[in-house]
Write a structure and sequence with these properties.
25 strands; alpha/beta; 24% strand; flavoprotein; 5-stranded parallel beta sheet; FAD; oxidoreductase; FAD/NAD(P)-binding domain; 9-stranded mixed beta sheet; NAD(P)/FAD-dependent oxidoreductase
Length: 496
C-alpha cells in the first residue's frame, strides 16, 4: 500500500477475503490478467465465515463438490465438511495461486465514493496495525467488487430475553464462541432450530451431560450421507479433475431437481421428508410434534443433518427437543410458556444472523448516498445507479459458490467488454419499468427482518435473481451484455 501521503490506484478492488473473495481473485487473475488487484479484509485472517465461526461442529450445509471451487477439486473424504477443513481448503487455494499475497488484512472500507467526472472510486480505509492502532488512508480504483456476503459479522440476531440477567449460568451466542467455554458434563440448552442449532446439538451432546434444543416451531430437516459413496467410486477410477466435474454435475442436478420437486409438489415433499425423519428417529410421535413444520419445504432453507447425527443423539438419550416459547430466564435455567423449567448450566442463543447489505458498504455516487431499496440487481451481480460496482450473492437453495463463481466470471466479462470498447464506466439500466420483488425469496425470519434494506430484483429477464443454477449457467454469461449496460466512453472522462 502507498504511504499515508499518497493515494494508490488499482484497477479492481475486492472487498472480503473469504470463500467468495478468493474465488473472485482467481477468476480476475486468470481471465483479466492485466488488471491490478487487491483484496481488502477487515479481519486478521482470510476465510470469512469459516474463520469467524468457531462453535462446536461448525460445518458446511452443502456438499463440498459444489461448495468448493470448480477449478480446484475437493479431495477430502467427507462431502459435508467441517469448518477447519473448509478453512484449510481456502488457504491452500489462495497460496497455490498467489492470491494470499494480494490480501490486505485489518483493512476496512469506511466509505466508497464514485466520481462520474473521473470515472473512478475513492475508498476511505481504516487500516489497523498489529497493536490495534488505526490509520485512515485513501485508495482509488476503477471497479469495486463486494465479496463480503450479506451477513453482519460484527453482530448476530440476539433477542432480549426477560430475566436473562438473573440466570446463574453462562449465555453464549454461536457467532462469538468463547474458546475457554467448558461444557463437559453440564446441562446445555440451545435456543433455535436452524442450521446452527442442528449442528451444535449433536456435537455438544458428545461431551455435555444433556443437550436440549428449544424451538418455537419445527424446521424441515433432512438426513443426508456424510460421505458421497458415488463420488468415492468415481474418484477411484477417474483423474481428480474429471472426477470432480462428474460429481459436481451429479450433485448440481440432484440439488436442483430436489428443490423443484419440493416447490412443485409440496405435499409429496412433506411426506418424503417426514418418512425420512421417522426412519432416522424411530419415533413417529416425536416427528409429528417436533419435526413437522406448518410451512412447505423450501419456504425456508432446508436443514441437512449428515448421517442423521441429530436424530442419533436424540435416540441415544444425549439430546432432546422441546417445542415451546421462552417465558423468561430464571436462576436455574429457562421457564417456558407452558410452565416447565429447563434447567441449564449453559444456554446457547442460536437465534440467527443479521443481514447487512454488502459488508456495510454505503456507496455515494457524485456525492449522493445510494439508497439500496430503490435499486435493482442485474444478472445477479451489478446494481442500478452504481457504476462499476458488483456484488456477490450466493444461492439460498444450493451451494453459495455456484452463483459466486458465475458472478465473478460475469465481472471478468464486463471488464473485458469495457477494455475492448474503450469504456471508462458501465451501469445497468432497465429498458422499461420493473416490478419490484424482494432480493431473496425466503420466508425465514432472518430474511424478513432485513430484506427491505437491500436492492430489489425485477420481474423478468436479467433482472430476476433466480434460484436456479442450471438456468443461470446457461443465461448469465451469454447474450449481448452491452444491451443492459449504460456506457461511459473513456474519451469523455478527464482525470487529474
Amino acid at each position: 500500500m502507498a504511504t499515508a501521503d499518497e493515494v494508490e490506484h488499482l484497477d479492481v478492488v475486492i472487498v472480503g477475503a473469504g470463500l467468495s473473495g478468493v474465488g473472485a481473485a482467481y477468476r480476475l487473475r486468470t481471465e483479466c490478467p492485466g488488471k491490478s488487484l487487491a483484496l481488502l479484509e477487515a479481519r486478521d485472517a482470510m476465510g470469512g465465515t469459516w474463520d469467524l465461526f468457531r462453535y462446536p461442529g461448525v460445518r458446511s450445509d452443502s456438499d463440498m463438490f459444489t461448495l468448493g471451487y470448480p477449478f480446484r477439486p475437493w479431495r477430502e473424504a467427507k462431502a459435508i465438511a467441517d469448518g477447519p477443513s473448509i478453512l484449510s481448503y481456502i488457504r491452500r487455494t489462495a497460496a497455490e495461486h498467489g492470491i494470499d499475497a494480494l490480501i490486505r488484512y485489518r483493512t476496512k472500507v469506511v466509505s466508497a465514493d464514485w466520481s462520474s467526472a473521473e470515472a473512478r472510486w475513492t475508498l476511505v480505509l481504516a487500516v489497523r496495525d498489529e497493536r490495534g492502532n488505526v490509520e485512515q488512508r485513501r485508495l482509488t480504483c476503477d471497479f469495486l467488487y463486494s465479496c463480503a456476503g450479506y451477513y453482519d459479522y460484527e453482530r448476530g440476531h440476539d433477542p432480549v430475553f426477560p430475566g436473562v440477567e438473573s440466570f446463574a449460568g453462562t449465555v453464549v451466542h454461536p457467532q462469538f464462541w468463547p474458546e475457554e467455554l467448558d461444557y463437559a458434563g453440564k446441562r446445555v440448552v440451545v435456543i433455535g432450530s436452524g442450521a446452527t442449532a442442528v449442528t451444535l446439538v449433536p456435537s455438544m451432546a458428545e461431551d455435555a451431560a444433556r443437550v436440549t434444543m428449544l424451538q418455537r416451531s419445527p424446521t424441515w430437516i433432512s438426513p443426508v450421507p456424510g460421505r458421497d459413496r458415488v463420488a468415492d467410486r468415481v474418484r477411484a477410477v477417474l483423474p481428480a479433475g474429471l472426477a470432480h466435474r462428474v460429481v459436481r454435475a451429479k450433485n448440481i442436478a440432484f440439488t436442483a431437481g430436489f428443490y423443484q420437486f419440493c416447490r412443485r409438489w409440496p405435499k409429496a415433499a412433506r411426506r418424503l421428508l417426514t418418512r425420512l425423519s421417522r426412519r432416522a428417529l424411530r419415533d413417529a410421535r416425536a416427528v409429528r410434534e417436533h419435526f413437522t413444520p406448518s410451512y412447505d419445504p423450501w419456504d425456508q432453507r432446508l436443514c441437512a443433518v449428515p448421517d442423521a447425527d441429530l436424530y442419533r443423539a436424540i435416540r441415544k438419550g444425549r439430546a432432546e427437543v422441546v417445542t415451546d416459547h421462552v417465558d423468561s430466564f430464571v436462576p436455574e435455567g429457562i421457564r417456558l410458556r407452558s410452565g416447565r423449567v429447563l434447567e441449564a448450566d449453559v444456554v446457547v442463543t442460536a437465534t440467527g444472523l443479521r443481514l447487512l447489505a454488502f459488508g456495510g458498504i454505503a456507496p455515494r455516487v457524485d456525492g449522493r448516498r445510494v439508497e439500496w431499496p430503490e435499486q435493482f440487481v442485474w444478472r445477479g451481480a451489478m446494481v442500478t445507479g452504481v457504476p462499476n460496482f458488483a456484488v456477490c450473492i450466493g444461492y439460498t437453495n444450493a451451494s453459495w459458490t455456484l452463483r459466486a463463481d458465475l458472478t465473478s466470471r460475469l465481472v471478468c466479462k464486463v471488464l473485458n467488454l469495457m477494455e475492448r470498447r474503450g469504456l471508462a464506466a458501465v451501469v445497468p439500466e432497465p429498458d422499461r419499468e420493473l416490478v419490484a420483488r424482494p432480493l431473496l425469496d425466503l420466508a425465514s425470519g432472518y430474511v424478513r427482518r432485513s430484506i427491505d434494506e437491500f436492492p430489489r430484483q425485477g420481474d423478468r429477464g436479467p433482472w430476476r435473481v433466480r434460484q436456479n443454477y442450471p438456468l443461470d449457467a446457461v443465461l448469465t454469461l451469454r447474450g449481448d451484455l452491452a444491451r443492459g449496460l449504460s456506457p461511459t466512453p473513456r474519451s469523455s472522462v478527464r482525470r487529474a
